[in-house]
């Protein structure tokens, strides 16, 4: 009986470990230099992913210097960036191709 319980635990342990390691995903839509939402709130100290969708007419570049990430997307393209754990604070991002458009921010709390 004991061996059966150990075998059952080992069979489900990887699935439980994977579920515990899943990171939060935040969706971000870029359209001609404007991001929606403009502010993303995240938990400080935890890794997360931003899924970016470019719904604009031309290419865009997600630029987050203090997030240490950049990503170029063609019109209609989708991609993602993984952001390592952040300290509490505010971190800006913008479309490098449209520097005068409103800047977005990630707020880590």
Give an overview in words:
- The chain has 109 residues and is of the alpha+beta class.
- 18% of the residues lie in helices and 45% in strands.
- It has one helix and nine strands, in the order H-E-E-E-E-E-E-E-E-E.
- The chain has one helix at 2-21; strands at residues 25-31, 34-36, 39-42, 48-54, 60-64, 69-73, 78-83, 89-95, 104-108.
- The strands form two sheets. Strands 3-9-8-5-6 form a five-stranded mixed sheet, with no helix packed on it. The protein has a four-stranded mixed sheet with strand order 2-1-4-7, with no helix packed on it.
Look at the structure and give the mean pLDDT: 88
Low-confidence parts: none
Distance between the termini: 47 Å
Supply the helix-strand structural class. alpha+beta
Helical amount: 10-25%
Strand order of the largest sheet: 3-9-8-5-6
Q: List the helices and strands in order.
A: HEEEEEEEEE
Largest sheet: 5 strands, mixed
Indicate the overall shape. globular
Briefly characterize the structure.
With 109 residues, the chain is α+β, with helices and mostly antiparallel strands. It has one helix at residues 2-21; strands at residues 25-31, 34-36, 39-42, 48-54, 60-64, 69-73, 78-83, 89-95, 104-108. The chain is globular, with a radius of gyration of 18 Å.
